[in-house]
Design the sequence.
């Protein structure tokens, strides 16, 4: 166990897709916890699409990472030193530790984990922010009911996989969208989606229509126009579209070519009486307890299936992150920072 | 009182803006009520933007008017002959009588009016479908609260005027948008809007921003991109956009020039966690009683101000309707069919 703190910092803001030169690796001493703080040694770092937004200084719902700062990110780790009364050395915790091997955090800003040690990384995926995103968006906006049809893209990712399985638990049909035949087969055969279509197929729109013979009642939007476009003509009256991400657009440096199709979307929302609503899961951490009580038993007993894509070594985080933005991961992407 | 039934029928479907050749005037005998029906002599016909949609055969939420059929429309009139047990000769009723001087309707499809005879036309505006549209959209989607800012276009029209006044009753600031200085002055001086901006002004966007120093919490959408565009940068986190109409786009024969700005709208909805929801008021007539109980006293005692634009004579309906689509009316447009 090294006392060195390996860190990955934001070297420059990307134009379009980030490349490795956007990140810089630094090494320093592990930090010292102050009063009320804990020192955490990281086991896993989460890599998530929202981080792309934080690399840019365009207006967003959160402050960007400053040039030279450690990249932000959720982490699970073990408390090595505690100066907080409710946390002890050896506790497993989840916190926003960032892309580094050690961090200090205020005791009130870490969440003590009750998970078995072999499943700690679930706190970054199915039982963490992505799982809560799926659960919250369905509970408050999507609201699938028996016999309805739900479509979600990135179906093998941590949000999509949970969305599909929770929708089925509510009695809805779950139709996934994923990149490539291997992911589609996994979605139907292992995750149990009713269907999964490859968005790279030339006839994707036709396949999607055929897989949704009764139209689409819930489209859980995490991608953007490449999937929303083919979904639009299938939307039923009173369809709901929870919007939690737009990964297809995060690297864009210009808008798609014209004409401006905004009136098409607006007209559809009017005619079909659609509810389209954005949400940022950080606003809703107060419902974490209800989410965990509802979902954790099913994840831990295997009735909800989870797939992780584990990258070894923090130094490989930039490449893994860059790839994730174009779908190269297969399952929830986490970096194993240390054993 | 003529026994002749003057009718205005759809002669052909418009391409772009309708012109007088889209309508044909016919004369025939007044119809005969069947068992369970009433014969109604119309006093007023309502002209509303939604009718433009029914003139086209593009997919919509309702069937189009067939070529050669009488144009649809809400009417108030007097029962001249009743074959329904709950309605009597002399009753004032509201029904979908269409652009004609007489109609028959099933007794269950007319609403008996309790309004004073001098105010019958209110059943087509402030106390009819437009008023219900304003009330329902605010109650279920817009939900303005004390200290918030609401923006609504067509502020002197029947929906906009009611939206602004109901928002103020809820404690919100009401900022209107209208076409021309005369309408803007009426909105602030007579309807009591906190501000009203002329969308024809070159610096409309700047004026709107200045009138909304705390941003926009509710944008009641009845127009489309010409107003939504300038509103977008002003929207606050958790803003709500009830979408009941897109009159600026109804006559469009092509989409606006590129680029495709749909991702801009989607990105804003995500970052600002906006709820954008379409609704068609015909789905919600079951709440008419609650609406009338809430709003009718204030309309009848003048604490909610109503302005009507009354066109004399059914034969002038096409010209008035064509003008309404570009904002030539000033207040709720009704046609006085007969005394």
Sequence:
């Amino acid at each position: 166990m090294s006392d060195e703190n390996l860190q990955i910092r934001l070297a420059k803001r990307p134009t379009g897709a980030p490349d490795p030169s956007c990140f810089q690796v630094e090494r320093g001493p592990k930090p010292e916890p102050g009063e009320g703080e804990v020192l955490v040694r990281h086991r896993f770092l989460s890599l998530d699409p929202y981080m792309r937004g934080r690399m840019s200084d365009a207006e967003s719902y959160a402050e960007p990472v400053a040039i030279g700062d450690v990249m932000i990110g959720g982490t699970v780790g073990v408390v090595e030193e505690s100066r907080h009364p409710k946390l002890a050395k050896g506790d497993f915790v989840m916190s926003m530790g960032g892309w580094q091997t050690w961090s200090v955090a205020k005791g009130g800003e870490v969440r003590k984990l009750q998970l078995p040690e072999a499943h700690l990384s679930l706190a970054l995926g199915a039982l963490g922010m992505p799982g809560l995103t799926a659960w919250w968006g369905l509970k408050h906006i999507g609201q699938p009911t028996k016999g309805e049809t739900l479509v979600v893209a990135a179906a093998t990712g941590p949000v999509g996989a949970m969305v599909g399985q929770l929708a089925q638990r509510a009695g809805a049909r779950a139709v996934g969208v994923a990149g490539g035949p291997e992911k589609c087969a996994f979605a139907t055969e292992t995750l149990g989606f009713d269907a999964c279509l490859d968005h790279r197929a030339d006839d994707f729109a036709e396949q999607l229509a055929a897989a949704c013979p009764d139209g689409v009642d819930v489209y859980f939007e995490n991608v953007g126009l490449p999937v929303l476009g083919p979904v639009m003509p299938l939307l039923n009256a009173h369809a709901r579209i929870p919007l939690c991400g737009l990964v297809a657009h995060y690297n864009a440096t210009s808008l798609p070519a014209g004409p401006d199709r905004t009136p098409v979307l607006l007209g559809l929302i009017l005619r079909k009486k659609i509810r389209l609503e954005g949400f940022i899961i950080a606003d809703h951490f107060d419902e974490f307890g209800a989410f965990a009580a509802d979902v954790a038993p099913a994840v831990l007993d295997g009735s909800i299936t989870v797939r992780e894509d584990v990258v070894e070594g923090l130094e490989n985080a930039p490449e893994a992150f860059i790839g994730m933005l174009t779908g190269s991961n297969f399952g929830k992407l986490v970096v194993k920072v240390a054993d």
Q: What stands out?
A: The two ends of chain B are 9 Å apart (CA to CA). The longest strand of chain B covers residues 37-46.
